[in-house]
Amino acid sequence: MRQDRLDGIISLTRQQGSCLQTGIGKMMKSPLRLRARLLATSLLIATTAPLTAAAQDVRQASGDEAAGDGEVVVTGSRIARPDLSASTPVQVISTEAIQRTGAANIQDVLAELPAVGQNISRTSTNFSTTGNGVASVNLRNLGSSRTLVLVNGRRFVAGIPGTSVVDLNTIPTDLIRQVEVVTGGASAVYGSEAIAGVVNFILDDTFEGLRLHGQNTVSDKGDTPRYLLSGVAGTSFAGGRGHLVVSGSFDDDRGLRSRNRSFSATDIPNRSSYGAQGLFSVDGRFAPGANSFTFDPANQLKNYQSANVDGYNRNADRYLSVPVRRYLGSAMAHFEVSQAFVPYVEGQYARTKSSNGLEAQAVADPDLAFLDGSPFGGIPITNPFIPQAIRDRMIATGANTLAFRRRSNDIFNRSNRNERETWRVVAGARGELGGGVRYDAYYTHGETSDRTASGTVFGPNYANALNAVAGPNGPVCAINADAIGSNDDPSCAPINIFGFNTVSAAAAAYVTRNGQLSTYQARVKQDVAAATLSGDLFRLPGGPLGVAIGGEYRRESSNEDFDEATNLGQTLGNQLSDTRGKFDVGEVYAEVVAPILADRPFFHALTFEGAVRYANYSTVGSVWSWKAGGDWAPIRDLRFRGVYSEATRAPNIGELFSAQSQTFPSVIDPCDQRQGEGDGAPLSLGTLSAACAAIPAIARAAASGGFAYSTAQLQNIDGFLGGNPALREEVAKTLTLGAVATPRFLPGFSLTVDYYRIRVENAIGIIGQQTSLDECFTGSGDAIFCGNVTRDANGFVTSVDALNLNTGSFLVSGIDTALRYGRDLLGGRVDVDARWTHLLDQEQTSFPGGPTQKEVGQLDCYSCGRLGTGFRDKVNASVTAARDRISLNWRVTYLSPVVDDLTKDVPIRTKAFWYHDAQLRFGLDDQQRSAFYLGVDNVFDKKPPVFGDTNLVTFPGTQTSANTYDLYGRLLYAGFDVRF
Fold first, then answer.
1. How many CA atoms lie within 13 Å of 143's alpha carbon, on the beta-carbon side?
2. Contact of 458 with 571, CB cutoff 8 Å
3. Distances (CA, A) of 328 to 154, 170, 213
4. CB distance 629 to 644 below 8 Å
5. Are the beta carbons of 169 and 324 closer than 8 angstroms?
6. Does pLDDT of 84 surpass 90?
7. pLDDT band (50, 70, 90) for residue 65
8. What distance in Å separates the CA atoms of residue 1 and residue 7, rounded to the nearest whole number?
9. How far apart are the C-alpha atoms of 940 and 61, rounded to whole Å?
10. CA 593, 594, 598, 604 torsion: positive or negative?
11. What pLDDT sits at residue 960?
12. What is the pTM of this model?
């Protein structure tokens, strides 16, 4: 069952972004080769002022700005209504709430919401092949690809190629008027990707005046500096009929090195045995003793003792949080030609630079092959660089080749440098046609480009350079000394890897092809044309019947191109293929809101609503989504609400069209009578399973001495991960039931309680390679498993694939509670907010009939397939006290204890964690629209629990669950925010 937990879980790689490191096992050279956990977020724990509110409570929830008395549209519906009532809970984050966090990046604000799970972020992408520093939002821990991001109610171009995931780095924080978050299926209103919900960034397109904002952040240890400078300017013209807003911002987060925090400064429990000076084994075991050699800091040869004595501290090179530098510019304008015709335009540009920090490339003899594909096989005894003491030991034991492990510190730096650019334009028109009928029609085009480069080593060159022999004037490459002229390479320079800094400049240039970079280039394009018509048809006893109808056409394309050497598998990472794909979809939708009764006994209000959407994809064909709900207020002070929906998510380009990429999984054939132990292991001659015995070659081998794999055969089992054009859409059934209390006898008080349940079926993912083997030959024998396995004529497994399939399911359910109370007190004002999410269920199943993984109370574990930390309880609370021009905000976050029993025989246990944040503002005017401020995050410098680098819940370089607990420690910031 443990193996099923590790290998049989749905793969989230494409769902969370193509930036994930395909070859992370080779990069790390650790005993656990599947530890790519990139759903992390930096928990700069703070609490904003949003309330998990009913739509009718938006004005209270936003805290400081009245929504006005006119009809408005709240996220989750396209129908304007005067009382802002809706059956779907809406969380609202106002400008003032954002300011109280001191966050320059809007992702840090969203991460504080209990409904938001573990995101792709700057603390989780250090080991990404591409996309370092990308920022996503992940509602309900269902994955960022199941959360739809809108800007001003319109789709935004993806920031991760091959996916629908929007990079929040492209959203200008200081231009946001408010953020509205709808949790639960919203596909009927907005289309695909809205399974977990919608995050709608509403930008301030009516800003007047000039706003300048600057901030400096640093830890109390003097590191992880962050700088922010932004400006917003807006003006009306033509007598108020037109309006123009422009903004620009620059922020620079310098990142944080693992070595700068005590809990992550050193690899624990063990350093890596791949040292910068090399580790050499005569018998290939790399065990302490007479057959293993290394060098001390003085470059004196010695026998190997242990990894902690002679090994390499990888954390000295890694990042806890990668640096991210952003340049953003925006412009918005509209002009009222008439009430019926108001054209508008929007434009956004974002440029993001980032990098990662990785330990030098680890290289071992099994990683190398010659250009013709033949394996390297170890350093030949004829290599003149081999120290005499090692050569003598080789002669004494009869060894002809020497196994090795070594870091490439003196050869090249493999860390990434990447740059992403996103631009988007919108042109449209809106207006009122009379009789309360409104329309909005627009076209938007957006593009994202991603360019990543890093140093690399070319395997065939490295093999040639190690295959050296003695020449008349010193060591030479064997290919240039043999009698075969056709294999000569005049540029080949023999490489000396024995000791620290022994590689010559010529050898380093040869194995890196004169510093040739490994490159990745990608481009995403999105075009959307849409129109909506809404208004009131006729009056019902409770009010006018609201209707909205509309249509949308969308076209998406994505291209990802790796360099030729990576395509051919000639670098020391895995072979990676290019991905190219596109699709288009046409959609029509309708929504209705029917106020049945109003101002009657026991029926202060009774409203039903529903929506339906039909989409026709060029990939999956016809798709339907719908919702039905309503709300009932028996009295003015109390309202009950509920909605049921069936939402959908069409497969993205990566899931459909990603080319197959090679992997070398550590799998065990259930038919292997050495049980995967390889050469020298004893045979286990128990009865073969019926499926194994039914294969003639296996039956013959078992009868004549045993069917068993050699070590080389085990190491050469490969497999391919990739897209599947036959995928279907995911379907989610969602239910929300809740109540809203706003008692008149307690002005300023509101309480909401909502139960939610989301079940995703036909979830897109992979079946683990080991699971396919086990289920095919000892389990059900279903074709869904056996079709992934290839055997040769002698019965040996040569390949196990893991392509995308619609086989999985997810279930999340819980209770959201939010309380808000504000009142004038002692000549000032006090506002209290508290939000609590109690998780009832969080589980996933990789295939029908497979094991169900329960995740409530478990830590995040990417390699185990877990989508995010399933805290049983997460609570945010905020208290703001203001008097005259001074205000103090104190925020608290509570994370419940964890008992993780899925990733270790001995459960991981953590106590509850409390984080405290504070901000003091000094207003320059009575409304505090202009202010100087000081803030502290993690006031009491709470440190994360330490699990060690080899634990499955640990992200490389952190020693803890980086997407769960705060990594920075106490952060101090100061800034100004002035308006003219």
1. 28
2. yes
3. 19, 7, 14
4. yes
5. yes
6. no
7. very low
8. 10
9. 29
10. negative
11. 83
12. 0.88
Among the listed residues 541, 532, 533, the one whose alpha carbon sits nearest the alpha carbon of residue 594: 541
Instruction: Give the integer Cα–Cα distance in Å for 462 and 466.
Output: 6
What was the pLDDT predicted at 582? 96
If DSSP states are collapsed to H, E and C, what string results for 39-65?
CCCCCCCCCCCCCEECHHHHHHHHCCC
Q: Model confidence over 648-664: pLDDT tens digits? A: 999 999 999 988 777 78
Residue with tokens 């028996």: 634
pLDDT at 864: 56
**Measured distance CA(527)–CA(873) in Å, rounded:** 41
Q: CA angle at residue 113 from 818 to 612, to 5 degrees?
A: 85
C-alpha dist (Å) from residue 742 to 82, 89, 282, 635, 833: 18, 15, 77, 10, 14
DSSP string, 374-400: -B--SEETT-TTS-HHHHHHHHHHT-S
Q: Span 84-88, mean pLDDT?
A: 64
Sign of the CA dihedral running 800, 804, 805, 807? positive
Asked whether 754 and 91 are in contact (CB, 8 A), the reply is no
CB burial of residue 246 (10 Å; 0-12, 13-18, 19+)? middle
Total count of residues recorded for the chain: 980
Residue 690: in which H helix or E strand, if any?
helix 690-693
Is 679 within 8 Å of 284 (Cβ atoms)? no
- Transcribe 899-953 into DSSP letters: EE-SS-SSPEEE--EEEEEEEEEEESSTT-SSEEEEEEESTT-PPPP---TTSTT
- What's the rounded mean pLDDT across residues 472-496? 92
**pLDDT score, position 61:** 36
Task: Quote the CA–CA distance of 548 and 776 in Å, as a whole number.
Answer: 51
pLDDT in tens, 270-326: 899 999 999 999 999 999 999 999 999 999 999 999 999 999 999 999 999 999 999
Q: Are 378 and 404 in contact (CB under 8 A)?
A: yes
Please report which confidence band the pLDDT of residue 26 belongs to, taking 50, 70 and 90 as the band edges. very low
CA end-to-end span of the chain: 64
- Chain Cα centroid distance, residue 481: 51
Tell whether the model's pLDDT for residue 79 goes beyond 90. no
Decide: residue 281, CB within 10 A, 0-12 exposed, 13-18 middle, 19+ buried.
Answer: buried
Residue 42 is predicted with a pLDDT of: 29
Which residues are registered as beta bridge partners of 741? 638, 751
Q: Is 455 helix (H, G, I), strand (E, B) or coil?
A: strand
- Span 525-559, pLDDT tens digits: 999 999 999 999 999 999 999 999 999 999 999 99
Kind of pairing between the strands at 719-722 and 802-803: parallel
CB neighbour burial string for 712-726, b if at least 16 within 10 angstroms, e if fewer: ebbeebbbbbbbbee
Please report the pLDDT score of residue 573 as a whole number: 74
